[in-house]
Structure formats: C-alpha cells, structure tokens
Design a protein that fits this description.
There is one protein chain. With about 140 residues, the protein is mainly beta. It folds into 2 domains: about 80 residues, Translation Initiation Factor Eif1 (2-Layer Sandwich), CATH 3.30.780; about 45 residues. It contains 2 helices and 10 strands; from the N terminus they run E-E-H-E-E-H-E-E-E-E-E-E. The protein has a 5-stranded mixed beta sheet with strand order 3-4-2-1-5, with helices on one face. Strands 9-8-7-6-10 form a 5-stranded antiparallel beta sheet, with no helix packed on it. The longest helix is centred in the middle third of the chain and has 11 residues. The radius of gyration is 16 Å and the shape is elongated. The relative contact order is 0.19.
C-alpha cells in the first residue's frame, strides 16, 4: 500500500491540507479538479479544507493510498487563494513572459535560489518576486 504524508494546517479560522505536488500526482488527482480556493507554491499545494481536501482524501481512498496526517496550528499562516491548474507544473525561466495579478506583463530577466527579477514591459522598471511563492504575484504565463 502506498502512503502519502501531509500536514493539516489549522489557522483558527480555516484549514488547509499541505501536500507536495509529487504526492498530488502520485494520488492520481487531476490538477484541473482543484479549485481556486486552494493555493500553491512551486512545490506544494494547500488544499482548501472544505472541498479540495475532501476530493484528495476520496481520490486516495479510491486508489487504496493511505494518508498520514500531521496536525499543526498556525494562526499566522496565510496562503493566497491563487491556484491555477495551468501553472501546476510551471517553473520560472529567464525570458518567460508572465502576467501578474495586476494584469500587467513582466519578463523574467534573472533568477536565483531566492528571488525572480522581473521587468515591467511598459515602464521598464525591475521588481523582485520571492521564489518561495511566486504564485502570490503570478496570475498566468503568456
């Protein structure tokens, strides 16, 4: 039997199930079924507790996959409801044109282990985006 480890994060007002993207794929859950009420980073999905976490549990159960859940409480945890299935496998690359949450287009001009430097195509100004959670700012890719 396969086993997936994840963390249930309780914020006091809401909850999320933190699952690695590798384990989402392992479970067989279709990334297109996850709602925009969940959030994601480059490596993790934060499944909203009311519908997406249940969908994940049901998918694992149907495939006979055991889920081991670690529980945590973090009143300061805040994930942007930013899930976009088109970006599930996205990894930022130099020269990519991205569309930010402000609907403006930016070009990735530099990237290291911590930040992405983007250039506003209209104003020619540069901005930094944390690589830990670019989807907080990133809406789509062009």
């Amino acid at each position: 039997m396969k086993t997936i480890k994840c963390t249930k994060i309780d914020t006091g007002g809401h909850g999320y199930l933190s699952v690695s993207k590798k384990d989402i794929i392992l479970s067989g859950l279709d990334a297109n079924q996850i709602s925009e009420y969940s959030g994601h980073t480059l490596n993790r999905i934060y499944l909203e507790e009311d519908c997406d976490a249940t969908l994940f549990y049901d998918t694992c159960k149907s495939k006979d996959i055991e889920i081991k859940v670690k529980y945590s409480y973090n009143s300061k945890f805040n994930i942007t409801h930013n899930y976009n299935s088109k970006l599930f496998n996205y990894s930022p690359k130099i020269n990519d044109i991205i569309i930010a949450r402000n609907d403006r287009s930016y070009k990735i001009i530099n990237k290291n282990n911590k930040i992405i430097i983007v250039n506003d195509i209209i104003t020619n100004k540069n901005y930094s985006i944390p690589l830990t959670n670019p989807f907080k700012y990133l809406k789509d890719i062009n």
